[in-house]
Amino acid sequence: MQLQTSTWQEVEAYLTRSKGVIIPIGSTEQHGPTGLIGTDAITAEVISERAGEIADALVAPTIAIGMAEHHMGFPGSMTLRPSTLVSVICDNVHSLARHGFTRMMFVNGHGGNIGTVTGAFYEAYASAPRDTRFNCRLVNWFTDRKVAALAKELYGDHEGGHATPSEVAVTQAVYPDAIKSATLDPQVAPSGRFYGPEDFRRRFPDGRIGSDPSLARPEHGERLIEVAAQAVADTYAEFLAED
Amino acid sequence: MQLQTSTWQEVEAYLTRSKGVIIPIGSTEQHGPTGLIGTDAITAEVISERAGEIADALVAPTIAIGMAEHHMGFPGSMTLRPSTLVSVICDNVHSLARHGFTRMMFVNGHGGNIGTVTGAFYEAYASAPRDTRFNCRLVNWFTDRKVAALAKELYGDHEGGHATPSEVAVTQAVYPDAIKSATLDPQVAPSGRFYGPEDFRRRFPDGRIGSDPSLARPEHGERLIEVAAQAVADTYAEFLAED
Amino acid sequence: MQLQTSTWQEVEAYLTRSKGVIIPIGSTEQHGPTGLIGTDAITAEVISERAGEIADALVAPTIAIGMAEHHMGFPGSMTLRPSTLVSVICDNVHSLARHGFTRMMFVNGHGGNIGTVTGAFYEAYASAPRDTRFNCRLVNWFTDRKVAALAKELYGDHEGGHATPSEVAVTQAVYPDAIKSATLDPQVAPSGRFYGPEDFRRRFPDGRIGSDPSLARPEHGERLIEVAAQAVADTYAEFLAED
Amino acid sequence: MQLQTSTWQEVEAYLTRSKGVIIPIGSTEQHGPTGLIGTDAITAEVISERAGEIADALVAPTIAIGMAEHHMGFPGSMTLRPSTLVSVICDNVHSLARHGFTRMMFVNGHGGNIGTVTGAFYEAYASAPRDTRFNCRLVNWFTDRKVAALAKELYGDHEGGHATPSEVAVTQAVYPDAIKSATLDPQVAPSGRFYGPEDFRRRFPDGRIGSDPSLARPEHGERLIEVAAQAVADTYAEFLAED
Amino acid sequence: MQLQTSTWQEVEAYLTRSKGVIIPIGSTEQHGPTGLIGTDAITAEVISERAGEIADALVAPTIAIGMAEHHMGFPGSMTLRPSTLVSVICDNVHSLARHGFTRMMFVNGHGGNIGTVTGAFYEAYASAPRDTRFNCRLVNWFTDRKVAALAKELYGDHEGGHATPSEVAVTQAVYPDAIKSATLDPQVAPSGRFYGPEDFRRRFPDGRIGSDPSLARPEHGERLIEVAAQAVADTYAEFLAED
Amino acid sequence: MQLQTSTWQEVEAYLTRSKGVIIPIGSTEQHGPTGLIGTDAITAEVISERAGEIADALVAPTIAIGMAEHHMGFPGSMTLRPSTLVSVICDNVHSLARHGFTRMMFVNGHGGNIGTVTGAFYEAYASAPRDTRFNCRLVNWFTDRKVAALAKELYGDHEGGHATPSEVAVTQAVYPDAIKSATLDPQVAPSGRFYGPEDFRRRFPDGRIGSDPSLARPEHGERLIEVAAQAVADTYAEFLAED
Hints:
homohexamer; alpha/beta; four-stranded parallel beta sheet; 8 helices; 4 strands; 8% strand
């Protein structure tokens, strides 16, 4: 059930049977020569939607821009300052809490969001509207054990850390008309640590980290979506069941 | 051209021929018994996409949650505090300015955003990253002269001010499977001024202001999208052409 | 009744008969070669004072500096960042709400304030001190129908959009010793859209937009004050009467 | 020379002969049964104006609302949060610095402002617009040695610490039509330390601290204005002369 | 070399041979019936000091209060809001960057800091003082591979997740006079996920998670300090050596 | 009783007999050629600890970095922006208030903190967690009458205003191994007013103001600590005894 295509009375009815909600959060940032700039938002959204179907969960609109300061050396990348992202998370959570939601599960598609979003949950608890109590949880679809096993099966050591074939494959399944091709040089990108945006671009000139996204196929994406959505739905069920 | 389905090299190439970008901004809020909660985001997004096609403009991801504090009395409505929205606008604009964009046109679907977003432009000018210069402009698709004329032709005095048949019709064209029906009582909602969320709900118990959205039809939506997109594209062309 | 020249016991007594208050808000910015930098604050203040007499309303101190980033290319202009202005509005409103005021009407003399101030009202509602409820309203004296008609009668097409003869005339009535004269070249200033401060100064080199302020006369100012104050007082009465 | 009654060209000319500016800052808060709520703003303003005449200094608009949280237990008191006041001070200073002013002297009428304003100066230095250098200084007219001596001569031990006869006398000189009378009980208010607003009102039920403002006379006010303005002008001259 | 016991000329000399600095960061929060409230600050500090000796690194003062909202259900716990902690990290980093430091390594003793601090680094990069470039890195002493192996060797499965014997042992080595004893019931605390402060206290009534801190001994602490400090020093050397 | 070396149950027990707490606050900034960068934090901490022993008061961790923007021209100095320091003070106070503390006494070692910290108290009162009431007070150990008398006795006119022999002596008593020597030229530093960091360094090239810290001796430090701690303890007792 999508919040965006529901009426307020439908949400009112939903609240009589559940206090849970899924909020997809991604990023808008370069994903190498063949990855879409919206990759992290697209993957979080499609997996959340499918998980919402499995779990009969309400899915809120996707937070499409995350914390991607380190990608700002590449045209088209967009970022929220960490402090802005904290405010956005708080406003999302508090809006939902005012209606009686008590279990907010963020399904995340971007590693760079993790620190700021988990910190923001405590800002949200501490500044909660009066008389509201709620729990927030972040789930990274790409670190799920079964998803990682499937990526390993499909791509072996060429999955890498950014602009990975698995995330590219998911976007290919969603946007088959936007599959890109490009010469990758080297075929498998270098790996390593990075700091700010200049440093990132210097170390990873085409934007990839450790990956060979040419291995991605739309049919992989279908499988990854299904596995990830089931994992998200399972975690959501546990989350709702916690006392 | 959608930013989310482009690569960074495609954006780099786009920047050699244009410095303009369109940013859809909507809201996630109740739209009466038959309007979708995502109405303002959906309409801004579809009209921006179509305008982008007409004008060969890059379209950034939609800001789906706006300033909707006054709708918070209805389940499912979400809002950013005005101060958060100011930060979000600044971060969007500054991200794009860092890549060399100089004409940021926001296509807006929600009256409640106007004040805060236009104020935010000056915050963005005053706090611009060094050595960047850019112009920001807000266009409300629903107040365009030709759009208003078409709405008048289609709905006469029953267009109203919130949960209008014209915005509902646009969403029907986009999501024909999510067309809702409900008894409207009264058929045409009351009109008037409002203040905070309790006040809004007290004056407008089902969320509509002055409208009869039962008049909406998907085929109206198609026409409205086309007229609005052309108007947005025309304004965008003027905006780019300004010295 | 001026807050600044009252005692706290007089305010306590006033609160037994009314919960309304008028807050003038202007700007401190260039107004062309013959307009005073304080024009927008002076006009808002004198009209508020006169309206306060007509309506027996308490008038709070004038917010003299508004959002004037676009005027910062001219010496002497001062501005609050939009985010600061939001905080100032909230603090004004919340201070008054703590004493039991429930109808805060801002009388505005500066177009550049409108967006930020109307947005700030929702920040004020959302962050209200506990158990307080209040309504905020912004009235722009210069857009009142009768005021505009009088300006049209007096100045025809030469009223323009900034440094207008009508606002200059109001300041002449208040400060007859500070009437300025200067050669205006061209006699009627150019019109058009503008963005940040450099852009503003480039398009409007002497600071005026579309106006010929040499037409202003102090006796016009007297008439404009009276018409505007009556309009403000009428709106205030309606505001208080709303349920 | 008043900024509010000058044109931008007059300010431009002023800047060729001086980089100094005086900014009055007061408060809007209870001043006991006979003191005006605007006392601290009125006194700072009149003394700044007179000092500006003596010293040929530009005087910016008065910051009428200061940090008066501790007075919020009395109807009509208004306050900026300290964090808002920091932003207001920065925006005032940075606005003036953008035009080339380098010596900003705040003339203060309210003890409660001192801590926050002096702290704000360092926020202003640290966040200065690029390539601007300026010095800020706060002068409290009521702690000047000669002013204190005159207050001692006029009121002996009954000057007290809040709602003092000397500040009341200054307002009587400015607003002779707003001289108030009331029974003071006790004649001389109690003294002592205080914390938040409830604590203040509990300790000082009518708002005075240690004072007998019934001793105030308008003619005292005239003398106090003259002595204070000369002291401010002298300090301003020293401030400008510093290397 | 401790910043606090150095002179500015000694720091000036240090900067001619190194641009690196270590900043200990901990927390002030309950650590169960036998753990010190300052555990996380004390451990981060002592390990940083020892690592500083090994690596000839400057050590800045300890950030003693971190993000511990979830511990606020227990008397004596203190917390910074995540937004405050972001500001504190930025101010620490920017202060050091203004003097020419380019490698800021935070040695962390508290899991609850990780998200917010790593997010804050990107806020620090994005808002860096002009013309400064620097890299920030967070090292959690308690997750080092060799430290974890030693804890496993010493405490097997009773190390747990909060109020662990290893962190308690480190504080025993530092403050042998403050070794506490208490009956632990159950001997090994329960484990599991938690959300806000009420939830934490409900699940973990004495504040421990999964641990049996009665196993801690000061001599373990000595060994843990040495192993952790060597690991920190090694990481620091790598960090400095990165191009 | 040190918070950092206590358990939460010990704090719980303390709260049954007292609601008071002492919070040392200092600065991390240059103190001339022979003064330690941590002087203001070290002195505040040792005096607070000793006062805590005398008064049986709980002592919270030291806020080691204060507002020292004006010292940033000297290597090693660190500063919080005033706005950050306001947040830090609020978070410290609110954390303690949530546990039932009602008397928070800050013992300060740095003149530059006074304005911002006293302002912050009112921010803390105004934004207090619901249903909490508390009083905050700042005590500057170095301005106590008896401390000043002892400094006068020891150093006469060579005490000065920054990098004073008395504060240096206190640090010598605490860190006898970190006593520094350097040629002071001139022997007694110049005095005067200062503004931002460049201005400070220009006027006071080695960082001292008006002082001859070569007069400092560790045994003076012992005496100063004892006198200052007794004064702090006396003030604390008065503070607790206030109704």
